[in-house]
Amino acid sequence: MHLGLENKVVLVTGGTKGIGRSITRGFLDEGSIVHFCSRTKADVEASEKQLAKDYPQAKAYGSTVDVADQTQLENWVTSCAEQNGRLDVVVANVSALAIEDTAESWRKAFETDLLGLHVLTQAAIPHLEKTGGNIVTISSVSGRDIDFTTPSPYGPAKAAVIHYTASLARKLAPKGVRANTCSPGNIYINDGVWGNVEKNMPELFKSQMDKNPMGRMGKAEEISDVVCFLASERASFVSGTNVCADGALCQGVQF
Ligand SMILES: NC(=O)c1ccc[n+]([C@@H]2O[C@H](COP(=O)([O-])OP(=O)(O)OC[C@H]3O[C@@H](n4cnc5c(N)ncnc54)[C@H](OP(=O)(O)O)[C@@H]3O)[C@@H](O)[C@H]2O)c1
């Protein structure tokens, strides 16, 4: 299937590690121009170097941005749009991964997952309206299941991401802009969240691994493929939906 993402200008938040790194590479594989960000300058520079090596013809630009900082985030969106004269896709991937049930954790989840999403999308929408672009947000199965992360702000924040994305889809449909969510299940990446759990909390790792009906966790590419499809013209009539990519981990029926 040809996705038609060549030369599309794509923003990915949190692109130096984990799922965001795979999403960045997924769009580069499709010939898109990708701008990614994270908070750690050294990681941004190392990622840019690695991408230049792995994709010599590709255009991949990293920036040091904290999505919880409104000014930094707005400036990043504006400068990427100005640099390319357009913006086609925005992927809101970052989460505070706030799984402690404390006031500080709730504050982080609000500022990063929710306010960060609001600021990112509001800055991007005027540009997306010009190109008929789209938004993909990354939620989690924790947004719909009472799982090992509860009680904490993580699940409520992820549920709110799905809700807000669907409401943006309704509002923006007449303007030709789509918005969708992808909700990953457990995604195993060596140097990622589950790789760390495997090393440092083997009992939690085993209990979660045992819950996966496919007998395995997902691969990062199994999320980036869904994201690239949702962002592509092949999904031109898909808006306001939430695609669970979880290997049937969730037990609730999705209607
Ligand atoms: N991994 C899973 O199994 C799983 C399952 C379901 C959903 N998800 C969702 O998938 C998304 C990515 O998770 P992940 O597991 O890939 O995380 P990860 O491996 O920890 O990577 C997170 C990335 O985001 C960056 N980042 C974190 N906070 C940031 C901020 N405030 N501003 C800018 N960049 C920031 C990190 O770099 P810096 O720290 O240097 O900023 C890093 O590049 C999240 O929304 C998560 O909820 C993950």
From TrEMBL:
* InterPro entries to which the protein is assigned, alphabetical: NAD(P)-bd_dom_sf, SDR_fam
Q: Which domain of life is it from?
A: Eukaryota
**A Gene Ontology molecular-function term?**
oxidoreductase activity, acting on the CH-OH group of donors, NAD or NADP as acceptor
Give a yes or no for keyword Translocase in this entry: no
Q: Which UniProt keywords apply?
A: NADP
* Pfam families listed in its UniProt record: adh_short_C2
What family is this? Belongs to the short-chain dehydrogenases/reductases (SDR) family.
Its recorded name reads Uncharacterized protein
Write down the species. Saxophila tyrrhenica
